[in-house]
Amino acid sequence: MRNDETILRTAEQTEKAAAAIRNAKYCTAFTGAGISVESGIPPFRGENGIWNNYNPVVLDLGFFYQNPVESWTAIKEIFYDFFGTARPNAAHILLAEMEREGLLKVLITQNIDNLHYEAGSREIVEYHGNSRNLVCPRCGARRQAEPEILSSIPPKCSCGGVWKPDFVFFGESIPYDAMQISEKAAGKTDCMILIGTTGEVYPAAMIPREAAERGATIIEINPVPSLYTNEITDIFIQTGAAQAGMALQRALFSLDPGK
Ligand code: ZN
Description:
By secondary structure, the chain is an alpha/beta fold.
């Protein structure tokens, strides 16, 4: 139960965050699974996580090559049938609007659900790749994951290779460009907004720590404290992503002249 004191503190932290964002020269954002929970995408781990219903081995690179039909059956259900129905929430929309208004330079996401892209963000570093595109490991071809190509399992490239979603499987390394751009952004940013990420997945978890080490103001939005909260966070907005997104939207863009 949220009491008056909690609400007051959240409002105060939101105002502080808005001021830090306005004053920043190079504001960045770093998002994780928590930003998409209110869009209907459950996290992979935990009580209602996806891995309660599926075996994570379907995303193991070696297993995928050996058992393309079994892997693709699960991949299609999880990432295309189910994720495909999710829509961006107020937090995704806030970050897209901040980019359009010049208040956000780079958005680094660990998510592969495509919701930042759908919300209108374009300067996105997809640290773990994305589910929007497919790559052919045999000939290197790329294409969008459209329904007709996914109607046969496993979907095959014209060269005979099996299409693979363009996200990072277990046993696969982080895309080189994504790592480079993220490190550069962490070195340059003076304000980083963390949304829905708890700091447990490496090497991604290092990015905010690097930014903090360089003196960036760290704004954290999470419903419960994370590994970052007591370690590097300067401004903690303790609430869900969508609610914080709406509050920051008002604080940053409200046209109310009385404000
Ligand atoms: Zn091919």
